[in-house]
Design brief:
Elements (H helix, E strand, L loop, with lengths): L13 H18 L18 E6 L11 E11 L3 E4 L4 E3 L4 E9 L2 H8 L4 E2 L1 E2 L8 E7 L2 E8 L6 E6 L2 E6 L8 E3 L2 E8 L4 H8 L4 E5 L6 H12 L3 E7 L8 H12 L3 E5 L13 E4 L2 E5 L13 E9 L1 H15 L4 E3 H4 L22 E5 L1 E7 L3 H10 L4 E6 L8 H11 L3 E6 L3 H21 L3 E5 L8 E2 L3 E4 L3 E5 L5 H5 L3 E7 L1 H16 L8 H26 L1
Parallel strand pairs: 5-6, 14-15, 15-16, 19-26, 23-24, 24-25
Antiparallel strand pairs: 1-2, 1-10, 2-5, 3-4, 3-8, 4-7, 8-9, 10-11, 12-22, 13-19, 13-21, 14-17, 16-20, 17-18, 18-19, 22-29, 23-27, 27-28, 28-29
Helix pairs in contact: 1-13, 4-5, 8-9
Amino acid sequence: MGTTTRAAGGKRNSQAVRLACTIITLFVVSAFAGVSPTAVADESATAAAEIVGVYPNPVTESDAGEFIVIDVPNATNVSGWQFRDGESTASLPNTTVSGRVVLSTEPAAAETAVEKSVEPLGGTLALTNSGERLRLVQDNTSIDTVEYDTAPEGERYQQTGERWNWQPLGHTTVSVFETGAASSKLFVLPDSPDVPRDALDSATDQILIGGYTFTSETIATTLIRAHRRGVHVEVLVDGGPVGGISTHEATVLDRLVAAGIEVHVLGGERARYAYHHAKYAVVDDRSLVMTENWKPSGVGGRSSRGWGAIVNDAALTDRLAGVFRADTGWKDTTPWSEFRRNETFEATGQAFESYPSEFDSKRVPIDRAQLLVAPDNAESGVIDLIDNATETIRVVQVSTAGPDGPFTKAVLRAARRGVDVRLLLSDEWYVSEENSALVEHLNRIAAEQDLPLEAKLAEPNDRYEKIHAKGVIIDGKHVVVGSLNWNEESARENREVMVVLTGDAAGSYYKAVFERDWGGETDGGLPVGIIAAIGILLLIALVLAKTIDFERDQ
């Protein structure tokens, strides 16, 4: 803070100086689920095909339209093949099939449900809603077997990787997509709200917005401007966010529709996802993926610490556009103008704060990029990255599912094999209690087992309001950016979108942001709020000194 020079007759000011120092010292000191059913593979024969899905309980009268899905790796004539459940038998048609094949004893009803061609089954096979053991048989030899317990209405029991689970009909099975070397633009919020806006403003062909909520007037204006210059624009939002759709969001979406922009709402009784929680945009042949919502507190830079990336790769963007089309093209998606007719909306506030810009956006090359989506492949994709870490793991999250969550367990496994782990969590009131307990738990385990693991709560210190990012940096070169919260609902029931960027430059950029947020300091070494407060206190001290001088002179 510089050197203090004592003036002649300084004893007269000693009282004021001592008082000011006491105030400054006091300020500085005070400032700092149930069991899932299992699929059983029959090992009695070499599988030429496998059962990958069953739909026993359609939302129809008398369960019309039940179907079974098999995966046949090579073109094969399935004449003579049968499904057996111990009570009845259904024969596969005399035809050659390859890949994923849907079969049903009522193909017309099943086609209405799946909206694709269905092969007929001969016989009277009826899948029991209360549980079944179903075999695929060739020449009296079992090829594959699947068992399930009680079947939820309107849900399909399907295989995703090594895991079987119940998922609403229409649920996608997107595989991990990887591209080669590409360029990307990296940014963080609240520092660079201009980056997502400018990306949308540069569109010449298409903009597809995927979001949880949409309340940004600035982004709405940008989309309308793009629409008027001939860009194809569509928006997809969640129909039942926590707290409900706000009156402000309804006004913004009304404005988009009035301008001629198609707005979709995903939700309702037949919703495939607990929440459409993704935050992304397809902009021509670029993919914009973020941790932040399309609202002032997110993309407007008015509140949250968030991460974002724009990846310039046509193939990756085409895959992301495919996710958008899959999510807008099912029975649980409704046009906004129709959805809003019988809805009531909640009054909520908007964020209007401003924060310093410490981190500029940066264009960097990447070695490759991966697209992960939940619930299809994100959990396994992120955990695989963690399980293959060899040096460091840096995590920033709003919260996790606690010590028993799959992601928490994964970072503990990494720490136990010697990987240096840091976990930074939000200190906001709605997660502070659970996050504090987890921080204490993990740090205690680290101390007891001598693990290279440390967890802490974030200290925003006037650089942002709260942590909302969901990011991971692995070995300094693999960066996960996207909407996935570290809990099982987000990973297994929500639609989430994220990218994994691999490259030293990407790792270095986000690592610098993480380290600054981990330390909770500004470039000068003290939090912005502390520096401002100390300046005010020094001014108070000066006033006090002048006052005492005046009183002594009287």
